Amino acid sequence: MGGLKLSVHPLFFPLGLYYALTGRILVFVVFTLTAVVHELGHSLKAAAAGYRLDKIVLTPFGAVVKGDIKGLNPTDEIKIALAGPAVNFAVGTAFVALWWIFPETYAYTDVAATANFSLAAINLLPAYPLDGGRVLYALIQGAKGEKVATVTAKVTGAVLGAAFCALFVFSLFSSANFTVLFFAAFILFGAFSDKGAGKYVKTYFSLSDERLKKGLRVKSFAISANAPVKKLLALSDGEAINRAEVYENGVFLTEIGQEEINAIIEKGGLYEKIGDYL
Fold first, then answer.
1. Residue 90 pLDDT exceeds 70
2. Comparing 98 with 194, which gets the higher pLDDT?
3. Are residues 148 and 163 in the same domain?
4. CB–CB of 277/267 below 8 Å?
5. Paired strand residues for 57
6. Could you tell me which of 5, 153, 136, 143 has the C-alpha nearest to residue 77?
7. 20 to 30 A Cα–Cα from 149, which one of 76, 78, 164, 259?
8. How far apart are CA 144 and CA 199, in angstroms?
9. Which DSSP symbol is given to 270?
10. Residue 170 and residue 217 in one domain
11. Overall number of domains in the chain
12. Count of beta carbons in the 10 Å neighbourhood of residue 184
């Protein structure tokens, strides 16, 4: 299956230090945990499309996916991008519902609710690598191509970054908001950094002797030869040996084992028919 790599954005620790020095370290910890929940939304949606997360980048404003999602069409990329904010919004709404039933819990959960709603809203801004930026990139890529999408993403990020810099300057005349400054730096960093820092990659299934010594479950399922390869990926279990009965128009064609499934995954385009590789 391959290991999941975790890296930390250069601004993550400075912002954490700032929150610690201002006596708000608990808020920072809650936002960090909320970012992990946010990333869980991305990962689950990607897994449904037959992809796993190759790298998590923990940033000051959420754990985001950076880089291209190779082989994914714009529609699926948008669904994966929006899954993170959707999970945060759902969790935040659950806390609000909890307050109606048990009002006394408000004092203990208000920070968590605020963190979830805030991260959901922030990540919908159309600035790369935020989820809103990924949606913008995918929409333009589908209509105008990758080059135009890349330029648009960088320009939009630069404009938003400059706007937040201006907002920080205005805050100096009342109460300086350094969180806004960190966010502006984060947006500008994303606008001009390399897009290839992380990606979703195809899920592969290892049959190493080391794994087999521990014992593996065998998962069997049926699928149509006309189904796309990504559906085969979605039904396969990375912690089991997979076997698939393939049918066409309700008639049994063949059974494929894990090695054949791996071969189809390696050769096949996500949206091509499984039957093309039998």
1. yes
2. 98
3. yes
4. yes
5. 7, 64
6. 136
7. 164
8. 22
9. T
10. no
11. 2
12. 20
